[in-house]
Amino acid sequence: MNLQAPVRVLIVDDSAVVRQILTEILSRDIGIEVVGSAADPLLAREKIKRLNPDVITLDVEMPRMDGLAFLENLMRLRPTPVVMISSLTERGADTTLQALSLGAVDFVAKPKLDVARGLETYAEEIVGKVKAAAQARVRPLARAAATKVELDPQVAPAAQAAARAGLFRTTDRLIAIGASAGGTEALRVVLEGMPADAPAVVLTQHLPASFSTAFAERLDRHSAMSVREASDGEAVLPGHAYLPPGGRHLRVIRDGARWRCRIDDTDPVNRHKPAVDVLFRSVAANAGPNAVGAILTGMGDDGARGLLEMQQAGAATLVQDEATSVVWGMPGAAFKLGAAQETVPLERVAERLLALSRVSR
């Protein structure tokens, strides 16, 4: 007998077809109750007050009213876990990243064609993300949207301190980071704390293929480092952060005295492509004790075994703590596996990565 109350969900989408399909998909799960739906944010506002849902699914690209403005008001006045239903377009990617910066927990990709069949294909993912969102930590929004303010790298405190100390003149350190739900903002926070001459960083964030370019550009705007999509065979250099291009795995390979990026189109791992485990295992094999590994907020357990392999190869390892994680799935799995030597709040992750990179092992 399931004694846990079902997750109460409100569906907000201007499409009657999408509302119906999402209601059918979510209602099939015994752990979810769809308490209502709304065709626009104005109707949604009244239903939120009356129904008090645990999770809201939101189409942020609705006509008649800006979904982002609605989301911003919601997170300021009544913080509620939100899963976006986003279109797989360039504009949709940018809107989704803005919504994540405003506090949305996660998103589900809405296909451009044959929406009904497409959403059914993602039924398991939709149910999983709604349930995870119900356990997420959402906080009142107390600032303007991050995308509206461009960071001046000259004023980043960690960057100033590291630059003054002249700490990073070596090419023999590598930082590897993995993240999923909540990770787009967590990675922004970490990279904002990195100086322009930090050790090279390799990243894997679970994202649809069409989102990777917009995400790399967003991170690049917010970091003193140069953040880019990796190309196959390019050298891994200090002061640069590398993301896998859309829908591909990123590995690190050794080429004599240096590392290079290897991009491949092999099968998904842990149902993800790119997968954190793929990156971490390559770092363990080719960088060993010269690497530092970190897992940030995310759903599931991708990266936990790879982080353990990094630790066993001599790398320093850490995970984001539960209190500052949106979802403590991936970091929690690594912690339970014994793969993390430290558990660190998000605002201190950059500082610890830099400090651990300076330690000779």
Automatic annotation (TrEMBL):
CDD domains (alphabetical): CheB_Rec, REC_CheB-like
What's the protein here called?
Protein-glutamate methylesterase/protein-glutamine glutaminase
**What Gene Ontology cellular-component terms does the record carry?**
cytoplasm
The entry's function note states: Involved in chemotaxis. Part of a chemotaxis signal transduction system that modulates chemotaxis in response to various stimuli. Catalyzes the demethylation of specific methylglutamate residues introduced into the chemoreceptors (methyl-accepting chemotaxis proteins or MCP) by CheR. Also mediates the irreversible deamidation of specific glutamine residues to glutamic acid.
UniProt key word Nucleus: no
Q: Which residues form the CheB-type methylesterase domain?
A: 168-360
State the NCBIfam families in the record: PRK00742.1, PRK12555.1
EC number(s) reported in the record: 3.1.1.61, 3.5.1.44
Read off the InterPro entries from this record.
Answer: CheB-like, CheB_C, CheY-like_superfamily, Sig_transdc_resp-reg_Me-estase, Sig_transdc_resp-reg_receiver
- Reaction(s) the record says it catalyses: L-glutaminyl-[protein] + H2O = L-glutamyl-[protein] + NH4(+); [protein]-L-glutamate 5-O-methyl ester + H2O = L-glutamyl-[protein] + methanol + H(+)
Native source species = Stenotrophomonas panacihumi
How would you describe the post-translational modification of this protein? Phosphorylated by CheA. Phosphorylation of the N-terminal regulatory domain activates the methylesterase activity.
Please report the stretch or stretches of sequence annotated as the Response regulatory domain.
8-125
Q: Where is the active site?
A: S180, H206, D302
Which gene is annotated as encoding this protein in its UniProt record?
cheB
Q: Which GO terms describe its molecular function?
A: phosphorelay response regulator activity; protein-glutamate methylesterase activity; protein-glutamine glutaminase activity
Family label: Belongs to the CheB family.
Please cite one Gene Ontology biological process associated with this protein: chemotaxis
Organism lineage: Bacteria, Pseudomonadati, Pseudomonadota, Gammaproteobacteria, Lysobacterales
Q: What is known of its domains?
A: Contains a C-terminal catalytic domain, and an N-terminal region which modulates catalytic activity.
User: Domain of life of the organism in this record?
Assistant: Bacteria
Subcellular location(s): the record lists: Cytoplasm
